[in-house]
Design brief:
The protein has 51 residues and is mostly beta strands. The protein is built from no helices and four strands. This is Threonyl/alanyl tRNA synthetase SAD domain-containing protein.
Length: 51
């Protein structure tokens, strides 16, 4: 959840949940915006490597 100039919004998770962080070797997350009709679109991409 975050506050934007137009108000509060939610970003859906869309990912798999782990029970223990040791199940992950590394995590890289990036955010990018792109112009769409009527505003901007925010895209989040997360890459996970095995331990």
């Amino acid at each position: 959840m975050c506050e934007l100039p137009a108000g509060r919004t939610d970003i859906a998770c869309g990912g798999t949940h782990v029970h223990d962080l040791t199940a992950l070797g590394g995590v890289t997350t990036s955010l990018r915006t792109g112009q769409v009709e009527g505003g901007l679109e925010l895209t989040m991409e997360t890459d996970v490597t095995a331990p």
